[in-house]
Amino acid sequence: MEKNLKARAKAGQLSYGIMMSMTDPTVVEMAAYAGYDYVRIDCEHSMIDYSAMQSMIRIANSLSLPIFVRVSPQDDVTRLLDFGVDGIMIPDVNNKADAIAAVNLVKYAPVGERGMFKGGRAFRYGDVDVTPISKQVNEQISLIIQIESKEGLDNIDEILSVEGIDFVATGRNDLSQSLGFIGQATHPTVMAAEELIIKKAVEHGKFPNVLGTTPARIAELKKLGVLTFTVNRDIGMLYDTMKKNVALFKA
């Protein structure tokens, strides 16, 4: 079965991934063996250093597990791509200028302006000449943008008109703040905003990438045309299991 996430989406295949905040590379290995279709490392809200990141990327590559990184700040993008990640998620894309800047970081010319370094690990330290395959690399690497504000909603059509965007993610927690319903991620207005983002993504030929943590929500998202889902976060799963375990013995 196809491993590349974008190719899977183009083929109509469903994909289920997990967000990672833990720094132990073993968790990446476990995700691959458990059957997840991709992992997304969260560098926006987590303290993951480069040493741990390198090991996580190497393990994912060795097991043919697509690995993406949500970046913060964005000056990490080039070095992550050169080391071998399969895609980048850019949070807080609020307007067309933000979208163009994201594409320029992730895609080679003529689509973007990604810096070209022929000695990176992704190109076998210079053994593979990236110049003649830059178009192929652009197709293999995924750019995920995250729309999570009222400004992003207001500018959604011009954002999604930008060439080079592959996936569109939502962010209901931040949307709830921006829309005036702070902390109410399931408020009807927030849910409607997420569904608008999904609808617009599909209309513009982009693939929605949406968080869905219950089978019922996944079923709803499938009806909207979503094929790629992030279904949980490592620290949440571990913490819930720990609470249940100690409660079992204290009961």
TL;DR?
Helices cover 45% and strands 16% of the residues.
What labels describe this entry?
TIM Barrel; alpha/beta; 251 residues; 12 helices; 45% helix; 16% strand; 8-stranded parallel beta barrel
Distance between the termini: 45 Å
Largest sheet: 8 strands, parallel, barrel
**CATH fold call:** TIM Barrel
Q: Would you state the CATH class? A: Alpha Beta
Give the averaged pLDDT, no decimals: 96
Could you give the count of β-strands?
A: 8
Can you tell me the CATH architecture? Alpha-Beta Barrel
Q: How many domains is the backbone divided into?
A: 1
Q: Which of globular, elongated, flat, extended, rod-shaped describes the shape?
A: globular
Total helices: the number is: 12
For the CA atoms, what is the radius of gyration? Answer: 18 Å
Name given to the CATH homologous superfamily = Phosphoenolpyruvate-binding domains
| Spatial strand sequence of the major β-sheet | 1-2-3-4-5-6-7-8
- Which ranges are low-confidence, i.e. pLDDT below 50, for 5 or more consecutive residues? none
**Percent of residues in β-strands:** 15-25%
Please trace the helix and strand order, writing H or E for each element: HEHEHEHEHHEHHEHHEHEH
Explain what this protein looks like in three dimensions.
The protein is an alpha/beta fold and 251 residues long. It has one domain: TIM Barrel (Alpha-Beta Barrel). The chain has 12 helices and 8 strands. Strands 1-2-3-4-5-6-7-8 form an 8-stranded parallel beta barrel, surrounded by 7 helices. Helix 2 links the parallel strand 1 and strand 2. The N and C termini lie far apart (45 Å). The relative contact order is 0.13. The mean pLDDT is 96.
